[in-house]
Request: fold
Amino acid sequence: MSKTLTARVRSARTLSPGIRELVLTLPEPLTMLPGSFVQVATRPAGTLLRRPISVAGSDGTELRLIVRAVGKGTNWLVSREAGDELNLLLPCGAERELALEGRRLLLVGGGIGTPPLFHFAEYYQPKTVETRLIIGALGGEEVEGYRSAAPADVPLTLVSEDGTVGEQGLVTTPLKRLLAEDSPPTTVIACGPEPMLAAVRQICAEYNADCYVQLESLMACGTGLCQGCAVPMVAGGYKLVCKDGPLFRAEELVWPLPATPRPLRIEVARSAPAPKESLAISLGSLKLKTPILVASGTAGYGPELQAAGGLEGVGAIITKTVTLEPRAGNPAPRICETPAGMLNSIGLANVGLRRFIEEKLPAARALNLPVIVNIGGSTTEEYVTVAEEIGQQDGVAAVELNVSCPNVDHGGIHFGTDPALLGDLTRRVKAALKGQPLFVKLTPNVIDITIPAQAAVENGADGLSLINTLVGMAVDVASSRPIIANRVGGLSGPAIRPVAVRMVDQVRRLFPDVPIIGLGGIEDWHDAAELLIAGANVICLGTANLYNPGVAGEVADGLRRLLTWRGMAGISELSSSLNGM
Ligand SMILES: Cc1cc2nc3c(=O)[nH]c(=O)nc-3n(C[C@H](O)[C@H](O)[C@H](O)COP(=O)(O)OP(=O)(O)OC[C@H]3O[C@@H](n4cnc5c(N)ncnc54)[C@H](O)[C@@H]3O)c2cc1C
Ligand SMILES: Cc1cc2nc3c(=O)[nH]c(=O)nc-3n(C[C@H](O)[C@H](O)[C@H](O)COP(=O)(O)O)c2cc1C
Ligand code: FES
Reply:
């Protein structure tokens, strides 16, 4: 049975850049068999789920982990030092004893797949005729790192693709050579990237060797609770990597194995940024220097964001929703933090159309960026009046229609949730403008986003913004009152990103050519790329501006590096590049 416990880091050392060995002291004796792993809580790093890490050694009182930094969780883990505590769920994995007496054991590790094989080596060396480790990695420095952590008395064959340490090439070359030798029956256990595992399996079949593979997969629980880590079996159905594996006989599995996303944040960070011009993009008739906009309500009217964190990387500004009359906004409290997000019910507090035109619009224009004016209203007539006035102003690059406003003439129903109301509003606002492009900003609080999308496009929208906030609620447990004075608020931030990605994808498939502004929970370049690939032409940063006001510059830098890494000449190549679109 698995349990959670807190272990203390006894020692931590760097094996090679980005790869660290942690030796943990357990609070109680516990022996783990080779092939097992632990689920490490990395929540302080902003992650939700535990991260699976193989046991590289276990002597009953201590555990050895070797971790490569690839993302948030592992970056946090590799920065642990002696004395730090780690919360572990363990043991994980089907702990099974292999019958290897009288056999030779060849352990083949590729990159960070190598550490669990140290555990196999230590455990099975006394039980086998011979145990040998073949370790391969891209660079010699990494291979050296693993060598320094390998069990001292196990013979090693080292291979590096760059040839700087050991043999040059792939682990499959020495594997073939060893299997061709006259030797006792051989068992091979391999752990590493999927193409390496597939090649090892093939070679073992040729040389009649028993082949096991130690698999990785994306995991949530690590203990069989969720059925999330399923892998298809030749015999039919699925087995769970966490509960039935991670060690499987290669012949039991259906090949190729299910693909896991490639961790690329660190690889991309190391790429050189593509030229600044590579971010230039057209959004309908608008020509923008970057595809990074700032979302209405999260950047003031523009100068506020400039004062808070700067406008580096910003391609256009979308101003706070403006209504005909000034609005003081909703009663306080108006905001509250939620897991990976926040609720807001600001109530469209704004200076009103007159002051907007006299003060705010000129100040926004002075920033020398295209200004997209977001407008709202309580009746169709109010929207139309605002649109007529805004349409007459100079320097309005486009208008964004906030349709998440309650319609007082129709019992407070939000314009964006009723296709007939939305279609009528879009048509009349478009007619009131003086040719400026009109983007309708859809609300996600509907069952099928393609219905309002269609209503807007068929009634004259030049483009769509997806998405506004999702309605949510939080309760103060001490007072039994809603935390937000208005009872409910709009949920924004990373929590809503998958909803935004899904809706952008749905709408892009319906309208291959309609310009789309994608937003919802974008925190960094990786999130921005997700929305762009799913179908957005440009993206907006919203809540992220509130806690990282310089974020647009970081996103621009990351996107330029991603273009280099993907070998793309410009950002428009990335937009709508989803496979199977
Ligand atoms: C049974 C098992 C044993 C493992 N043993 C080790 C080990 O000994 N040492 C080690 O450094 N790593 C090991 N891993 C991989 C490690 O769990 C992932 O690298 C880690 O979960 C990534 O978390 P992150 O927060 O750093 O990355 P995230 O920010 O979550 O993601 C970064 C990238 O990594 C991808 N990713 C996330 N989880 C995995 C995964 N399980 N496999 C492949 N890609 C993933 C994400 O999809 C994303 O592309 C093991 C994985 C499994 C399933
Ligand atoms: C504090 C706050 C105020 C907002 N005000 C407006 C607004 O006035 N008009 C509007 O169309 N959207 C408004 N939004 C919604 C955002 O523009 C954006 O659509 C939403 O927050 C999702 O993006 P995000 O998760 O990146 O923040 C507001 C969001 C927040 C967090
Ligand atoms: S990760 Fe939940 S069942 Fe394997």
Notes: The first strand starts at residue 3 and ends at 16. The chain has three domains: 3-92, 104-214, 276-574. The chain is about 30% helix and 25% strand.
